[in-house]
Predict the structure of Metalloregulator ArsR/SmtB family transcription factor.
Amino acid sequence: MMRRDVFQAIADPTRREIINLIAHKRMNVNAVAENFAMSRPAISKHMKILEECGLVMMEQQGRERYCKAQLKPLHEVSDWVSRYKKEWEERLDAMEKYIKEL
C-alpha cells in the first residue's frame, strides 16, 4: 500500500476541519462526527486518511477511540510554501512598483 502524504490529507475541506477541531483538544470519534452532516463511517474514512498521513493519532480508551492531532507533519506543507513565498513577494513588489510608475 502506498503511504499517503500530508498534501492529500489537507486537500479535503472535511479533513482540514477535523484537524481544526482536534488541534487543541483530543476528541472521541463520535464527538468529531457530530460536527459534520455526514455519516459516521464517512468520518471514519477521513480519520483513517489523516492517521495514515501522520496527522492524527488514535488512542483507545475503554470503549472509546480518541483522536489526537499530530501537527508536525504540516511543517512539510509550510516548507514547500515558503520556497515560493519569496518569489511571489518579489513579483508582487515589482507589480506594485510598475503600477505606481503608471
